[in-house]
Amino acid sequence: MLVNETFAAYSNIFVYGSMAAYTVAMFAFAISLASTRGRDLVPAAPAVAEAATGGVALATRVVTTLGGPDDGARPPGRRAGNIGMSVTWLATILLGIALALRGLSVGRVPWGNMYEFSLTSAFAISLAFVVLSLKRDLRWLGIFVVIPVLLTLGLAVTVLYTEAAQLVPALKSYWLVIHVSAAVVCGGAFCVGAAVTCLFLVADAGERRAVAGKPYFLDGLARRLPASNALDAMAYRIHAFMFPLWTFAIVAGAIWAENAWGRYWGWDPKETWAFITWVAYAAYLHARATAGWKGRKASVIALIAFGCFVFNYFGVNMLITGLHSYSGV
Amino acid sequence: MGKRFWGFAMSGIDAGNGADLAAEEPTTDASTDASTDASTEASAEPSTPALSTQPVQTDPVGLGLLGWLRWVWRTLTSMRTALVLLFLLALASIPGSIFPQRGSAPVKVTQYITDKPVLGRFMDKIGMFDVFASPWFAAIYILLFVSLAGCVLPRTMQHWRILRSRPPVAPRNLSRLDEYRVLNVDANSQAVLDDAAGILRRQRWRVDTSQFDGATGWVAAEKGYARETGNLVFHLALLGLLTAVGLGALLGFRGTVIVREGSSFADTRAQFDSFAPGRWFNDSSLPPFAFTLTDFVADYQRGGQQNGAAREFSAKVKLTSEPGSAPEARTIEVNDPLVVDGVKTFLVGHGYAPTITVRDTKGQVIFRDSVVFLPQDGNYTSTGVAKVPDTVPQLGLQGFFLPTAAVDAVLGPHSTFPAPDDPAVFISAWVGDLGLDSGRAQSVYKLDTSAMQRLGIEALRPGESWTLPGGHGTVTLDGYVEWASFTVARDPGKGFALASAIAAIAGLALSLLVRRRRVWVRVSLAGNGDTVVEVAGMTRSEHATVSDDVEELTTALVASARISSSTPAGA
Ligand code: HEM
Question: ipTM value of the model?
Fold first, then answer.
């Protein structure tokens, strides 16, 4: 099967188009965040609210609320945030088209080398974000997602760019499709999870200092974020949802390896780092159930785990040679 | 604390110490619930009964050997230890990805030790080149799995009991739970209880209920047991996975063999170039198949950034699956192994074998073979050796095979493309003693030239001959064939490993996605003869809520006909 050069060229144009859109979204989100009215970091006492349900007034004790900043007043950053969201949708679609064209040009799934893998990951991060945003207000998160997407794309088009080409035989397997697509989706969601985790750490530190009456250099940011417990819950949900999928991605990889090399696990550097990442995320989930390890400590573990994921993705391909480093970087 | 229902007794030592009576009062003893961070939550909220069977860490109790042993066991099986061991496991794996490993790159290990003898030998001693088989790595995962077993087996027993017991009785003070609603209704108290039980049963809660005794009555319900079941299945599946890996390593085997076009391979130990059986492996479990490599096909990218990258490999073979059976044509490709009786044959590599003929001065053929040359780079610049012992003095040939030949000052003779577009060999000839009689094992890919003299070097294309100087005969390059290398392997543990992995994923999904929660309804008589209905719920699943359940139940109760004429509490 030949490579369709026209499709490949159009794919590149769409990649640049989406990068332009992401840049616009980044500025919009930045303006949105900057002009959001901050909240008070010292928590109010739990409220006892009166609510009406089905004609019967019920005394309800509200213990926690989840989700974005829920002060009913509309913060001034709303308009810019909406623009940011719309442009992010547009950018995601453009990137999706770029990927589809790339795939069509070579007649296979578009993740046969690091360039394509990066595009797909950026798409996955972006998609995870816009999908999550359907259910809740995530404008505060926008900039922290768009920046890693732009960085990934930037790295892809500069350092990692590879011409459209067919696959080496070892990569021709439908287990590759399953394994890599699961890994890419996990990567995207883990990236969003890591962003939320970082923001949790900021909000948490802000709240602690506010209670203690101490100054905090990220105070401005902390005020504009949702409450730390809501961020913590969101980060946990993302990780908890993705961990089984990550486990599945590793198992699918093992099945592929068994089919290609005759052993399902061989401690190849890529496999080793997938394992390390898995163990690190398992440690995070454990930490959350261990007294004295919740909150900050567990969050740090989640960030270390994400670091392992990123290292497996860039570091192992570029720094360490193994069976996996054959796909033209 | 109602240990019978929700408390946790790690090793069963203090299980069921008459604790049942306390079931009505939520305890403030935070240590019974490891998922509650005692320091932050106990003061603000009542500590509520645990919804998981997660173990608890305690300090050493009592003195003496028994107390101490008990403490060691509890510490080993605690969550904190599991966490530390998980960390150590991740850390310990890192050197295995950085340093060359014996299992996958033995040559690089030797090279490393030669380059840095002192450091290299030290690292070898502490297992840095064999991390995943080293005692310290084993120590970590064995401890982890002992901890896992010690943790999960008692939890499984306990969960089994919980699965067959009734939901716990309501705490006395429902208003202190996570979710709480109260309403006054003008309805028969027993009817409200029946309604609540009916609604919950229909929603597939496990329900326990009391009769209205004239003053009070209750319904207790619980849902989401699959969370704990999933968690236990996951952890047990990890034990299964470890067992499967171990069994596979003990019972399986792995061998590699190089087969030239036109040659055959029979599945017996002697025919392998290398063979690694498991400790319990028995030769009789090698199925007696054989195949001939009839043709090897390779295709490469031409032009572009990835010029020369492989695009297709396939080995055409004639398979005889049992002695005496008719040969059948098969194709072995990368990602598409040949399977015979559970033994898989994988195509893992290929290369060239130039066919070389050596004649003596009288024109008599003294050597003719297609000699396997090993590729040295991506363009298949290959090196190899031919030894001609049956002549005096003995003759040795050493050379390069270049599928697409080029020579330049820097690289010397090298190949510029992996396909045989313009094949040539560069051969140097040596005479003297090959050293074959010294008794030392010799590699077929190396020439020991310590007792030999070099005659010269010559480039040959297929069909060309070189008359060796000094009357040592002629060397002819007749052509070349391709060879393919195969890994033949059997891992009897892999089916079990796959099953364990699937169970682990399913268990994980249940454990992380199902919410475990409890709701209670209590009715009592108000001063004015109305019925006071309290609805409350709790959950301990991470960041889950029961508010929707409590809300739904309350709404359903309000909607049910018999209490539609209700008045709000306190009105
Ligand atoms: C091979 C090592 C282990 C791995 C990979 C592992 C992994 C996990 C994962 C991914 C979870 C998250 C599921 C959830 O939150 O429900 C979990 C939960 C849990 N693990 Fe492990 N685990 C291991 C060993 C252990 C050991 C040794 C113990 C006992 C001390 C243990 C006790 C628990 C408990 C009690 C939970 C449930 C936490 C909760 O209630 O939320 N695990 N484990």
Answer: 0.83
